[in-house]
Design goal:
The protein is an alpha+beta fold. It contains 9 helices and 18 strands.
Length: 280
């Protein structure tokens, strides 16, 4: 049978305090004496009623059931930890592959070494020679997205859309499943073509703004503050390439202090190396 007992006999005390009027901490107290002693040291506490806190009742099962529940949840935590470790390992593997599957410039003996051949290459492309250097402006045309505000996003919208902030929070190099929808008229917006690559036109930092994603579907409304790169280069390939080898180059192009901007004319000047379509 589960018994109700006061929280005082089960958990240490927890109070939230403000040490410097800016940062909040969670402070654990092991006894009632320490709780009141600490109250004299800090400026401010959330309103915690002593009587309500001490008399709060909790349903507590018998020890055997406690142990069973604890073991079940601990086992699940172990599985989660193992999967997180596996995920971290895969991310490191992906990072290593990207550094070797694209040509990268290096500095040897204080001299810049420019290469147009990646370190790793699939066997069938070894004899294809160097990748071709072009500017992004030579290989693509550029468009600008059109305004979709946060208030335009609705749960029951019929038109899928992408806002620039979602490139930071939701999407990676490939955009398959669309997060947001709107009821705005599609005729008034800029719609994607499959294979479009999009990069934010504004952001908080230079390195964050250098974020490319490939839209795989037609007819997705692309919001304002998005640079749209429309090209015959394989869009997913280009997104990985820009996010890895060219990320710092793009970041250095961005301008601004409190808000950073990235313009199509800057991206057009970016030099890229392109393999044949099958290798892409």
């Amino acid at each position: 049978m589960i018994k109700n007992i006061t929280i005082l006999t089960v958990f240490p005390y927890f109070a939230r305090c403000r040490e410097d009027r800016k940062r909040l901490k969670i402070v654990s107290f092991l006894s009632l004496e320490l709780f009141y002693h600490a109250a004299c040291l800090f400026i401010w506490f959330y309103n915690i009623s002593k009587g309500a806190f001490l008399n709060l009742k909790l349903p507590i099962p018998q020890p055997q059931e406690q142990q069973r529940i604890a073991s079940c949840l601990s086992s699940l935590d172990e599985v989660i930890a193992a999967h997180n470790q596996k995920l971290a390992t895969l991310k490191d593997h992906k990072k290593g592959l990207m550094q070797n599957l694209f040509p990268t410039n290096s500095i040897t003996n204080y001299e810049l070494k420019i290469t147009r051949v990646p370190n790793y290459r699939f066997p069938e492309f070894v004899k294809d020679g160097e990748w071709v250097e072009k500017t992004l402006g030579e290989a693509a045309i550029f468009l600008k997205g059109k305004g979709i505000s946060k208030s335009d996003i609705v749960v029951n919208g019929c038109l899928p859309c992408i806002r620039y902030g979602e490139l930071y929070t939701h999407y990676n190099e490939t955009i398959r499943d669309i997060k947001s929808y709107t009821t705005l008229n599609a005729d008034d917006l800029v719609l994607s073509q499959s294979n479009d690559v999009i990069i934010p036109a504004s952001g908080e930092t230079q390195i964050d703004i250098a974020t490319a994603s490939c839209v795989l579907a037609n007819g997705i409304a692309l919001g304002g503050d998005l640079n749209i790169i429309r090209t015959k280069i394989h869009g997913v390939f280009l997104s990985y390439y820009l996010n890895n080898v060219k990320k710092r180059d793009i970041a250095q192009m961005a301008q601004g202090i409190s808000v950073v901007h990235l313009y199509p004319n800057q991206l057009k000047a970016l030099k890229i190396n392109i393999p044949k379509p099958k290798e892409q």
